[in-house]
Amino acid sequence: MVVTDLDRTLLRSDHSLSDYTVSVLNTCRKHGIKIVFATARDLSQMMDLLAKVPADAVIAINGAIIYVDGKVVIENRILEYSKQRIQREFYNAEKNGC
Q: Roughly how many angstroms between the first and final C-alpha of the chain, as a whole number?
């Protein structure tokens, strides 16, 4: 299994994949080696990459969502109520000079 981050690891500074990297990863897949991308990105931000190198699994949004074979197997998003509470806390802290 190959598990790799994307930005500043697998991708070049222009956020692209080299032809060599694409070739190596696809050769790994042909030999039965699973490819897993772990990233802070959402899946929608990875579609071009996945078209070149299909992943067996994607750990997206810093682990909030995990896809295996294109299906969501774990989803731990922040609930809307929690987001609103966090926003209020930041607003109140800012208002009080913090």
A: 46
SS3 category, 46: helix
Q: Which helix (H) or strand (E) holds 60?
A: strand 57-60
How many whole angstroms separate alpha carbon 69 and alpha carbon 47? 14
In b/e form, how buried is each residue of 20-42, taking b as 16+ CB within 10 angstroms?
A: ebeeebeeeeeeeeebbbbbebe
Q: Is the pTM of this model over 0.85?
A: no
Please state which CATH number belongs to domain 2-95. Answer: 3.40.50.1000
| Residue-wise pLDDT tens digits, 52-65 | 999 999 999 988 89
The token pair at 67 is 């896809």
